[in-house]
Specification:
With about 80 residues, the chain is mostly helical. The protein is about 60% helix and about 5% strand. It has one domain.
Length: about 80
């Protein structure tokens, strides 16, 4: 009996993020603090653009990375 592609995807997704569900409170808080520090550090990295006074910063990448790693707290 074969498993449909969607079921295989769901199983792989659950296995990939299982480590996040098993974290304790202290580890979750330290991961959140680390992500906040990373976003703060990446906000200092900037790439000036010649046609606009507003530079591109690494803050956007840091926020997206934090969102992927931390996930949503209410959905679990």
């Amino acid at each position: 009996m074969t498993i449909p592609a969607l079921e295989r995807y769901k199983v792989a997704r659950d296995n990939a993020w299982q480590w996040r569900r098993e974290l304790g409170l202290v580890k979750k808080l330290s991961l959140s603090l680390g992500m906040a520090c990373l976003v703060g550090l990446l906000a200092q990295a900037r790439i000036p653009l010649p046609w606009t006074p507003i530079p591109i910063t690494g803050q956007t990448f840091g926020v997206l990375l934090a969102a992927v790693l931390l996930g949503s707290g209410g959905a679990e």
